[in-house]
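Box S1 | Example of a co-folding query
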Amino acid sequence: MRKSRTQVGIVGAGPAGLVLAQRLARHGVESVVLERRDRAYVEARIRAGVLEQHTVELLAELGVGARLKREGLVHEGLEICLDGERSRLDLAAATGGKRVTVYGQTEVTKDLIAARLAAGLPLVFEAEEVRPLDLDGERPRLLYRKEGVEHELTCDFVAGCDGFHGVCRASLPEGALSLFERSYPFAWLGVLAEAPPAGEELIYARSARGFALYSMRSPTVARHYLQCRPDEDLAQWPLPRIWDELRRRLGRHGDLIVEGPVTDVSVTPMRSFVAEPMRHGRLFLAGDAAHIVPPTGAKGLNLAVVDVRYLSDALIEFYESGSQAGLEAYSDKALARIWKAQRFSWWMTSLLHTFGPEQAFEDRIRQAELSYLLSSEAARTALAENYVGLPL
Ligand code: APR
Ligand code: PHB
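Box S1 (continued) | Returned holo structure for adenosine-5-diphosphoribose
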C-alpha cells in the first residue's frame, strides 16, 4: 500500500473537480484529483456548451480563459421558434448587458487539464475503485488502485465531484441524504455535424412534432438536438431522417438547416435530481454528484462551477483563518441557488417539449404560455434573467 496525504482529496476530473483544484491551487491549498477514466476519454466526452458570464469570468481569473476568449462565441440573444414562428429574445437588453458564451464543456475540460498538468500538480487518471473512508472523522481517506498498486490518500477534506454515477454520494450511509427526483417521458437525440449552425444564435423550437434545439460549437460546427423517446433506438434514426426532422421542426424556416458530415450521434436522458444536504462530515458534494438538471436551460456546467466557487471560498477561508463558518454554510448556500436553477430548467423543459396524447390539455396550456411569453416584455425578461444566470 502506497501512502500519501493532501489537504483536499478531489474525486472526479469533470468541470467541478478541475475548477475546484485550479482555484485551490491559486490560493495555496493542496489537492489531489482522482479520475476513474483516462485522459483521452475525459477529453473526448461531448457535453453541453453554453457558459454564463460568471463562469467565463471565473475561468479567466483562474488563468484558463485565453482560448475561451479567442474561440468562444459571445451571444447577446437567442431565438424561440413556436410552431414555425421565430422570435428573438435580446438577453443583453433584458439583463443590463449580460451575455452567454458558446464554448464546449469538452474544451473547458481540456483547458483545465492542460493547466493542471503544466503546473505539475497531481491529477491521477485511471484511478480504479476509489473508496472514500472515515468521512465522519478528522482524517478521511481515499483508497484506490493505479496500475495494480494500492494507494491510500489521507486528506483533511474530500470533495465528491464524481458526477451523477460517482462513488462519493453512493458511499454515504442510508438516510444521510434526502433525494428529490423527476424523470421526463422523453430524451434528446444529439448530433454534432461539420456544418454551419442554423443561425447566428441558438434556436429553441417547439412544434407539434416535439422540441428541437439548434446550437453550435463554432461557425463551422453545428450541434443540434431533437426530442425523442427515452428508449430511442438509434438504428431507427438514419442520417436522412435526422436532417429531415431537424428541418420539419422549424416549420417554414427549415431551409436554415445546412447538412454536413455527422461526427457524433447520441441520446441524452432527461432528469431533475437534487441530493440534500451537500455535506456529510468531511465530504462535500459538488456538481452532478449532488444535482442534475435537464439540459434545456443550459445550467448543468454553470451550476457545477458555482458550487465549487462556494466550496473553494469556504476551504480557502478555513486554511487561511481556521474558521469553519464557510464550510458550515456551504450546503445551504449552494442549494438555495440550485433550486432556482432546478425550477428554471424544469419550467423551460415543460414549456418547450410535447408530452403526448395523455397530456393534450397541458400541451395546449404550454403552447399558450409560450405564446404569451413571447408577447410579454415582463415574461421575456424573467426568462432572460434566468438564462444568463442568477446573481451569485
Ligand atoms: N472515481 C473517480 N472518478 C469518477 C468516479 C469514481 N468512482 N465516478 C465518476 N468519476 C468521474 C467521471 O469519469 C467524470 O470525469 O467524475 C467526473 C465527473 O464529471 P462530470 O460528470 O462532468 O460532472 P461535473 O464535474 O459535476 O460537471 C457537471 O457535467 O454532466 C455534465 O451536465 C453536466 O454540465 C454538467 C457538468
Ligand atoms: C449545446 O450546445 O450542447 C447546448 C446548448 C444549449 C442547451 C443545451 C445544450 O440548452
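The longest strand covers residues 178-193. The pocket of P-hydroxybenzoic acid (ligand 2) is lined by residues 48-50, 202, 213, 215, 223, 295-296, 298 (CB under 6 Å).
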